Amino acid sequence: MINNSKKILSLLFIFLFLSLICTGQGKRLLSPEDILAFKRLSEPQISPNSKWIAFVISQFENRKINSEIWLISSNGKVLRQITKNPRPDFSPAWSPDSKFLSFISKEKNGKNFEIYLYSLETQEIKKLIGVKGRIRDQKWSPDGRMIAFLKTDSLTKEEIERQKIGDDAIIIDENYKHTRLWLFDFRTGKIRLLTHQDMTVWHFNWSPDSKKIVVLASPIPTAEGYEYQSHLSIIDVQSGREIVLTRKTNAQAPPSFSSDGKWIVYLAPIGNFKERGIIKVIPAMGGKPVELLRDYGGNVWDVKWHPRENLLIASIAKGPSHYLCTLNMRGEIKVLFEMNYSIIPYWGNFWSVDSNGEYIAFLNEKIDYPKELWISKLDGSGKKQLTNFNNYLEKVKFGKVEVVQWTNPVDGARVEGILVKPVDFEDGKKYPLVVWLHGGPAYNWGLGSHLTNWAQLFASNGYMVLLPNFRGSSGYGMKWMMKNVRDWGNGPMSDVMSGIDYLISKGWVDENKLFVGGGSYGGYLTSWIITHTDRFKAAFVSAGVTNLVTEYALTDEPSFLIGYFNSTPYEDPEIYRKNSPLTYASNVRTPVLIVHGEKDLRVPVSQAYEFYSALKYYKAPAKLIIYPREYHGIREYTHQLDCMRRVLNWFRKHTE
User: Fold this and answer.
1) pLDDT tens digits, 401-428
2) What angle do CA 538, 539, 540 make, to 5 degrees?
3) What is the DSSP track for 411-426?
4) What are phi and psi of 612, to 5 degrees?
5) Coil/strand/helix, residue 614
6) How many Å is the maximal CA-CA distance in the chain?
7) In DSSP terms, which residues pair with 233 in a beta bridge?
8) Phi and psi at residue 581, in whole multiples of 5°?
9) Global pTM value
């Protein structure tokens, strides 16, 4: 009987062991289609009473991108899809009493945009505001009597008639279509234009007493105006009178009022260097701003006033980690809790706080799971994940993500990066390496799932992936961020190459199977690297800058390069020539796949043609792919799928 019991226990143990193995083996490798099936969450807006959170989900439907408004209770027990349209819905905003949610939607079968109102009590939706043209943002006044919104100027009747007969010549730097601030009054049901001035309003926020609005605006409605010519102003709601507070701001983070209405916080650049700079707090009546965190060893990417206390709430990247912090007017920081992001979230709203400053709703990643909606008390207690929209990825194997550090022997700089190990990594085995370079250049690879940047896709195909935070990256303070000023190529390249050598010394990488790629500035640095070394088996350049002289002349924000090179190519042509990969195109021996969007304004498609033409002349192995209708980044479903497959095949072809 005892022997039988032992046999049964042994068989049970074997069964359980085999079950665990089978469960692990049941997970599959990541595919390009998995990445395109991903649901992207954005704009989390917690209700003033902290009971509900509205947010946006964007996903491909029938190969076309669409976005919908969703609602979830703060305890996670109730989840509702508010809209379901074949058109985009976005910009959710709560009424101060938490009873209504407004949002923007595109007119059915039209080009105009409308603002809708959802009742939390009746769950009914009705149209609130319908206008001709595009609405971009909307916010309730604190007293609940008005909604302010941004609308771009429409074509005049005369312009429409002229277009019909082909009389549509474009006069550069004239006839701007500005985005202006409008008001809807619930008492009268009417809308009125608040900013008659010829300026485009990019961001705005109400004062606590609903009598003023702080705006970030510029005289021209272009990226150059947004990034480099924006000014900070107070607009009087009754009269529309404008008081300019400062002519120099950073465009990325919206300014906001303190709870007592006496102060305004904003992000300011350092000189012509427009990347995430320092926090400034300026009196709402005008005056000298107070500077905070100029010498801090991290970088702020968003900042808002605490709704009740005289404190600032800031999102800060420090190294590859991201933190929610509070700080006072003396610049003293208190870390509340850590958040995870694969790349520094420069654009969009990633968190919001309730009206008492007690709870925060935010987007957050895990090492093995992409961004979902979370909630926490502001002090970090009770941190909880609320949504799980991408649970199909639980059936997918992920490569292990970890932080690596190394020393650049050229100048002794300590460099950090993210390593994504191949799926089913085996210690003692050497793997092909993909070095994946971020754009910006002042972006930052952080601790996250690294799904949408394709790092996990490479890991699923047997590659080790290095994501280096080379000099010029954010997250390490302004000194490190500005360390590539007038040196876009050599310094960052030395950081990258020393990182590769470090991984080779660990015995993890096959030094004869190295690959490199990146987009935007990452495409620039890839182009620079392959014009200065032939260590790589193949390269991938997406939307890459290759000729700084023509980039300055044709990009939609030329002042960007002035910030890095302290001059124009007309005044200092040599610094632009020396830092252009095109100058060294004759050195290329690495097979390079170049892709570019046909309508890219930031890095015009001519950059790709120039580099490809030079490589063809010098008989270098190169292939150029142009995607129609695409701007700075490939967004259409079929184009993304094609691009991922091409890159995998390109690297695979040159691995074998």
Assistant:
1) 999 999 999 999 999 999 999 999 999 9
2) 140
3) T--EEEEEEEPPTT--
4) -65, -40
5) helix
6) 99
7) 215, 244
8) -55, -30
9) 0.93
